[in-house]
Specification:
By secondary structure, the protein is an alpha+beta fold. Helix content is 26%, strand content 23%.
Length: 172
């Protein structure tokens, strides 16, 4: 004797599906929030520095980029020709952002990377030049670094286009 489950009426099926979908959405949203790099560094002393503090700590061009979201002129960064093994860290707070193995020549005039260190960057939407771009910043001090584009090399297809004056190189 075989038994079959009773058929669900359409309204009950829709209710069950909606509940499952909302549960999955809530789970995904909580995981995304928990993985927010900015939250991991919420109590960083770098977040408490004033504009005057930053002006004292940083060279003028670096202040303009890191704290005012400026952009350095292409082709001017000495880091374009940096090919040693090491790490590229935020000039504002020394947080490592990229490994030298992930650097590539994008022919854009800015240091470029196809991957970032997990949890080191935060992101936001940027509409300043009349088109939508994805801006990224240091997760610890919130210093502006550059923009990420989807025209990079394998394996990620990403191009983190970084301002050299926002970085420092640390050889290993």
């Amino acid at each position: 004797m075989s038994r079959t489950a009773p058929a669900l009426d359409p309204s009950r099926r829709a209710l069950m599906f909606s509940g499952a979908a909302l549960g999955l959405f809530a789970l995904a949203r909580s995981k995304a929030h928990a993985a927010d790099p900015a939250q991991a560094f919420a109590n960083s002393p770098f977040r408490k520095l004033t504009e005057a503090d930053w002006r004292k700590r940083l060279p003028g061009a670096s202040f303009d980029v890191l704290r005012q979201e400026g952009t350095e002129y292409p082709g001017t960064s000495p880091l374009l020709n940096e090919h040693r093994k090491g790490l590229f860290a935020c000039l504002g707070c020394d947080l490592p952002l990229f490994r030298s193995d992930w650097k590539f020549d994008s022919h854009t005039g800015w240091p470029s990377f196809y991957r970032a260190i997990d949890g080191a960057l935060g992101f936001k939407r940027d509409l300043k030049i009349g088109m939508e771009r994805k801006e990224y910043h240091c997760a610890r001090c919130l210093g502006h670094q550059g923009h990420v584009f989807d025209d990079g090399p394998a394996p990620t297809g990403l191009r983190y286009c970084n301002n050299g004056v926002a970085l420092k190189f640390v050889p290993v």
